[in-house]
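Folds vary. Our protein:
___
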Amino acid sequence: MTDTPGVPAAPDLDQVNILIVDDLPEKHLVMASILEELGQNLVSARSGREALRLILQMEFAVILLDVNMPDIDGLETASLIRQYKKTAQTPILFITAYVDEAQASKGYALGAVDYISSPVVPGVLRSKVKVFVDLHRMNRQLQQQAVEREALARAEAARTAAEDATRRAAYLSDASQRLSMSLNINATAHALADIAVPGLGDMAAVALLDSHGELHCRCLKISGSADPSVGPVLLECHRELSAPMAAIVHSTVRTRQIKFLPAIDLCAASTASTASAEFTSPPPQPSWPELPADHEEMAVCPLVAGEQMLGALILFGKAGGFAQADAALLSEVVGRASIAMENARLYTLVQEADRRKNEFLAMLAHELRNPLAPIRNAVHIINGTEVADPTVVWARDVIARQVDHMSRMVDDLLDVSRIVRGKVAVHMEPLLLSTLCERAVEASGPLLAARQQELALDIPQEAVVLRGDLVRLSQVLSNLLNNASKFTDPNGKISLSASLQGDGVSITVSDSGQGIEAEFLPHVFDLFAQGDQALDRAQGGLGIGLTLVKHLVELHKGTVEAYSEGRGKGSRISVYLPASLSDQEVALPPADAPKTARPVRAASRKVLVVDDLPASADTLKVLLEMEGFAVRIANDGATALAIAQEFIPDVLILDIGLPGMDGFEIARQLRSRPESKDALLIALTGYGEAESRLRSQEAGFDHHVVKPADIDFLLSLVCQPLDERKAVGGA
């Protein structure tokens, strides 16, 4: 008998271990004398702590445990023994002089196989221990971990549970994959119905709440009929739930608990339904299938994500087909489906919000450009007359500058929107650093001159070559120069410098202006971020210039950083772009084509101006008449078509956003008429996005010009000879 506090002696291979735990030595002698006939290895422990140490080192067929011990009593020791995996099923026999019902109940709850009263009856003790010894020997021969018949049954149940868990995990994995395949809420509903049959029920319907709180059955899947040739059917539908079913679903969604109930009618008798605003129009209704008569029970599973109530998955099956145990699996499936549907719903909302934002920006640009057009026209008219009053000249120049400023802000705003949506592509081609800087200085020169600011230019004399879009990179540097000018006092100093650094060039714009506060410096490139948030908004602006710079630089695989020592200490912004020195001649992008000279035209060349904004139409009429054209005006589509039939204009300048009939439809009708099929059609509009330009081309326009138009460019188009226009069009 092993009775040492150290590592116990190794037993013979044919023997099993029996652990005796008691604080009294004489009881160990009694137990040993009774059990020695079994010929097994008896191991003694004088306390609960020693017993816990021994079970980590040895495997025991049975544990004889005294209930009353001084340090850790038998019940607490048994509880700790059960926490170890290797002894979770080891039989425990409690030895006690007295046991009441409460103590017995607690002991059996801890896994005791029996209570033996003390003093023990030797024959009873030996026979009970021998049973567990024999069981342990048998199970050890079969290489099992359990030590009793009950444990063997539990092991079998555990294997079955593991197989079920494996199947369940595979099912849930497949369900998650199929539910996440699309961000379309209809496709997600179809996927849910598809995975629910036959895995969860014989028939499944997905009912979703619309924005008005009404429930509609979105799809239905039936596993089949009694005819084996009829397979599962998945129907897309849009039917209102029956009133009783809707009430049950609403209640289930509110309580967030799966309900198992007798089956009732799914949908209302009427097949008519109204599509909700957030879902697409319903498809033509399919014939409603015959529902199996043996579908007597149903499970209503709520689809809820956070605080968002989405609807329910409704399952139908045979009587007794659903068990309360199914609730765990159903909860897993509908939980994942709820997340997938909420993601689809949020994605739809984001897409809708993005679409509305883009529509708003396009409309904003249109509405801002419309009033700018007559102002620019009026300035051009004034430029064409002799004005002696210096005050009028000054006012004219102020108006011209402010129109240009507003036009740049509108263009920047739309550029940022297009870049964020990935709609802007840069045309990469070799260009010289010197050319890039010249373009930027030329664009920003008038603003610097107006503020009487000094610009110092310091760029390498060598031929530094970049690959990029000359127009977009010029826009980057021009924005930086304009930004520096805006935040630098009149007569201040601004510098544009560049230097080669490694495999690229660093271009820096520095100023002696207001500087940037340390807490705002990390946010200077954020959209709409502005350091000056005071009510007076001394510097104005939309807070998009540097955001535009950052996006355009990143499109060129470059980086941009801002530096400032603080308020009133100026700032500098550095752009780093890939570049290299070149000794060879660089094929540069062609320079901007010079504006076509306007030949003097006889009054017989007729122009029809169509614009619903009288100021735009009237000022453009005066401007064209000053150039010698015969001009008529129309403010809507019907009037324009009537005048065109009688006036037979050579040129038509059409606004797009007209009341009633838009400019695209007018252009299509003009192209279908013999008197105007060869006329020059110019779209003059506030809509400048790519979609509008494409629609103009498809409608038959020759040119798409964005308000406020460059007057010289517009007049050069109007003066374009018909033969030349046909040649260009044919090419």
